[in-house]
Amino acid sequence: MDKIVINGGVSLKGRVRVSGAKNSALPILASTILGGGECMISNVPRVVDVVTMGKLLGILGAKVTQEASRVVIKADVINSTQAPYELVKTMRASILVLGPLLARWGQATVSLPGGCAIGSRPVNMHLAGLTKLGAEVWVEHGYIHARAKRLTGAAIYCDVPTVTGTENLMMAASLAQGTTVIENAAKEPEIVDLADFLTKRGARIIGAGTDMITIEGVRELRGSDHEVIPDRIEAGTYLVAGAITRGSISVDRCRPDHLEPVIAKLRETGADIRVEKESVHLNAGASGRPDGVDIRTMPFPGFPTDMQAQMAALMAVARGTSIITETVFESRFMHVEELRRMGADIRVEGNRLMITGCERLTGAPVMASDLRASAGLILAGLAAEGTTEVLRVYHLDRGYEDIEDKLRGLGAVIDRRAA
Ligand code: EPZ
After folding, report:
1. Ligand 1 mean position to 92 CA, how many Å?
2. Ligand 1: does its nearest atom lie under 6 Å from the Cβ of 328?
3. Residues 249 and 359 reside in one and the same domain
4. 288: nearest Cα among 388, 383, 413, 380
């Protein structure tokens, strides 16, 4: 297992380029199962979760070649419709093959994703929606079993706007007979990106990005090329890196329109932010310590839960107090105890963090626990006095491409060592 070692206190300066969005690449790769023909997906982030999805598609029988940020997939034939526990337990997003397998091949057996550090994360809405589309769905021995001769369009209401649930149902409905309407659908940019890719392949989808998506099923989908949108959470993470180190950085090749809640909150902390077409420039040097702000995570277009840990780190060194309310997951606070080891005055009250900012954090050995908590600890280490060692960085490698190289490129004193 590796660790990342940071000597904090350097104000970051310079430019960093954002990679493709992990949470867009994963459903897009899974959706290649829906049809034959070759799909060439570019701007795919080189992260572990993408490699895992590629392995899963290979196990199912697709021909997958991954080189640099390009993935070429041909799923004309497959020789298995089973996503095994050994692989699903390493990546919950494996659930995204359920809808496509069922829609294209009439059956699917996918291991139930287990528990997760950030919450129970049930998939009941995925299963209820597929049942609505006419599938027979049951759970046995830890596996989801689904089968259907051909899915039929239906009206589906999601109790909560589930991101991968919306994606699974949109993919399944794209080959169903008739029209499907998904109400209270998630509106994340990654859903729009998936819908754009499916539409290029012949799917008939309107309303992606709104809370009502209408899908008119077609007989088959063809192959297509696609460039994955930039990762808004990676972009936001680097903006917070600039803010927490009172630096001046530019985040390039991003989509500022996907970053509005993050930009708004960072401006509220006093950071000077300028937005261009594909770049965001942040200068936090002039304002000294950030001002404490209150944050409430919400489904898009609200403040993203995937940026909560990063903002908790920033608020830990802010002037005054702040309250961060996590409304999406029930226990996404694994970073809190580790931040306290670095001197943060932060306590959990139900689904809220009560934070009183301090002048400086102090470096310490800390333990990563999930992808975004790890990012929060890296950010805290960049600002802390002394050396911080973040252990179990395999969590980080799931969703951040070359993070230590990108941060070093901004002047951070950071490297990766065997733990
Ligand atoms: C996606 O997870 C993302 N993952 C997560 O990013 C992100 O945090 C989350 O959406 C929220 O934005 C991918 O896209 C691969 P949900 P997902 O279904 O789809 C409840 C990261 O760090 N729910 O939108 O699993 C659920 O418990 C990861 O990149 C049900 O109750 O999240 C949660 O409280 C972490 N039943 C809420 O809905 C269901 O059937 C939102 O979950 C489904 C979800």
Report:
1. 10
2. yes
3. yes
4. 383
pLDDT exceeds 90 at position 410: yes
- Helix 22-31 and helix 189-200, axial crossing angle in degrees, nearest 10: 30
Establish whether residue 164 lines the binding site of ligand 1, counting it when its CB lies within 6 angstroms of any ligand atom.
yes
pLDDT in tens, 299-330: 999 999 999 999 999 999 999 999 999 999 98
The single residue listed with the structure tokens 């309107």 is 206
The finding on whether 399 has its CB within 6 A of some atom of ligand 1 is yes
Residue 136's CB is within 10 A of a number of other CB atoms, namely: 12
Position 115 pLDDT exceeds 90: no
Res 412 pLDDT > 80: yes
Which residue type sits at 170?
A: M
Are residues 190 and 318 located together in one domain of the fold? no
Mean pLDDT of the chain: 96
Neighbours of 36 (CB within 10 A): 15
Cβ–Cβ < 8 Å for 370, 392: no
What is the pTM assigned to this prediction?
A: 0.97
Give the number of the atom of ligand 1 that is nearest the alpha carbon of residue 304: 12
What CATH number corresponds to the domain at position 322?
3.65.10.10
Q: How many domains does the chain have?
A: 2
Our answer on whether the CB atom of 43 is closer than 6 Å to any ligand 1 atom is no
* Residue 287 pLDDT class (50, 70, 90 cuts): confident
Ligand 1 atom with minimal separation from the 190 CA? 14
- Which residue has the CA at smallest separation from atom 20 of ligand 1? 121
Residue 298 lies in domain: 2-19+230-418
User: Angle at the Cα of 110 (from 79 to 190), degrees rounded to 5?
Assistant: 100
pLDDT tens profile 159-218: 999 999 999 999 999 999 999 999 999 999 999 999 999 999 999 999 999 999 999 999
Q: Which two tokens stand for residue 82?
A: 């089973």
> Coil, helix or strand for 49?
helix
Do residue 213 and residue 256 come from a single domain? no
395 lines ligand 1 (CB under 6 A): no
Catalytic (active site) residue 116: yes
Best of 160, 234, 334, 395 to mutate for ligand 1, by most ligand atoms within 8 A of CB?
160
Prior bond to 301 cis, omega within 30? yes
Annotated active-site residue in 39, 116, 158, 358: 116
Residue 114 pLDDT greater than 80, yes or no: no
